[in-house]
Amino acid sequence: MPQLPDDLDAVAVRTWCSLALEALGRERAEIDAINVYPIADGDTGTNLYLTVESAAAAVEAVFAAHETGATVPATADAVRAMAHGALIGARGNSGTILAQLLRGMAGVLADGGDAAHLRLALTSAADAARQAVAHPVEGTVLTVAAAAAEAARGEDPDLRAVVNAAYAGALAALARTPEQLAVLGRAGVVDAGGRGLVAVLGALVETVTGQAPVRGPRSGPGKAPAPVDGGSVVGLPVGGTPVEGVTEGGFPAGGVPGGGVPGGGVSPGEGPLDCPEDADGGGPAFEVIYLLEARDEQVARLRARLDALGDSLVVVGGDGLWHVHVHVDDAGAAVEAGVEAGRPYRIRITHFATESGHDLRVQAEPAQRAVVVVVPGDGLAGLCTEAGATTVIARPGEPPASGELVDAIRRAHAREVVLLPNDAALRHTAAAAAEQARTEGVRVALVPTRAAVQGIAALAVHEPDRGFDEDVVAMTAAAGATRYAELAVAERQSWTMAGICQAGDILGLIDGDVAVIGADVPATARTVLDRMLAAGGELVTLVLGEDVPDSLADALEAHVREGHLAVDTVVYRGGHQRAPLLIGVE
Description:
The relative contact order is 0.08. This protein starts with 9 loop residues before the first helix and ends with a strand. By secondary structure, the chain is α+β, with helices and mostly antiparallel strands. The chain is globular, with a radius of gyration of 26 Å. It contains 19 helices and 18 strands. The model is unreliable at 216-281 and 354-362 (pLDDT under 50). The longest helix has 24 residues, at 10-33.
């Protein structure tokens, strides 16, 4: 049996993220089914799952950066990675709030993971989440988070006692949400976001105690968990909610007696004033989400402008990077507000009526075939878009999660999709996205491209009018015939296939392995090109990073022309990408 942690160190944070992802994976469908607030679009469980998936991936990346198993990352690095991953991968209203909860916890846990720090972390998380929401509403995940923090307060030095108390407090608050929010009472369900937070806290209990929290007894489907200790709720039925007369799927069976919930207190007309979508889905038409690079003072003005445009406004983050979520009728105005405040990206706009099935208008017929491409920068995104592909940008340190790739496949709106991940590290993520899309009836072929230049080569031979299998074979062959390289700057002294490098050295990686160690970009690039072209080639592709001058491309093109006859060179601007130079040889 693994040793239980005495505090929340990096390994415990990693375990927590993994268990939380598993828990949300198990409960995702049930949480989706009870999602009625703020929009009954049935995706809260999925959004929470994708948010935690991004957080877990960021923590795994921190561990992967350690070259041996002899050491583990610092706790501060792990919790900050968790928070950053959740921020960049947050989905929907619930996921955005969860990202802020994790960010609030990380700010305290970076200084220590004992019982006292965890109590402070839970309080900080609840306060940070409430401040991020423009108009907080009781009976939501905010209420559950605050109750968890309140229950964990005290002087007990035992970490296990703190996590158990927080979990029990969250469960009890979750059971009361239908009494606080009228739309929940009428539907006979608890708050979906709150239930997701309970799952995350349950994973924390399992991390610290070694045992998953036991759900309370029930007398039948949808029955309330049995109260103990003077009425506190110690469990939540797996297939139901604490509301009488609710079916396994989370929907009312014949309605809640009296139009309210057990214990009374809510009539059909009651509810918080700030509940614009409370009744029959008559709120704004669009959900707008984006990441934003902006200064604090710009974000303050952005909040005011977006608050005037719509509702369900949540802005989380800090230190120059923010995640913006809002429901509006004018999606363009919400994006323009972000442009005025800073640099928005990863923009996602969802039409609620279409997503929820309330819109009976006939949607456009899907295309027969499309290509979805992961690219490392804005420049290549524009190039691939012009070629007809749907793009996903993988920014430095921010690899896309499987949910983001699934979204791109859906946006492509085609019966057949060719997926180009363009990164060996995305192989499993892309495979998971392809499998999910197949369950939705889309025929997906994953071409295992390992670099952007291989993706460019594959896209160049794509012909949507020929047979699907034939097209995939041609694209796979073109990618396989393209050798790839990139230049990188060494961050520290390290052993490589080419010898020992020092911090600041320029590394030339060919097919993923360090082949050249140089002092500057031009000389290293020339050496890499010569080694690649020694095995032959007809076309060299150069993709320049944002800060690389055009003169480098001119010099390398001249070098190829002088030393390698009959070899053509094409140059693209990659924009803000991780590597200063990408090279392909076909």
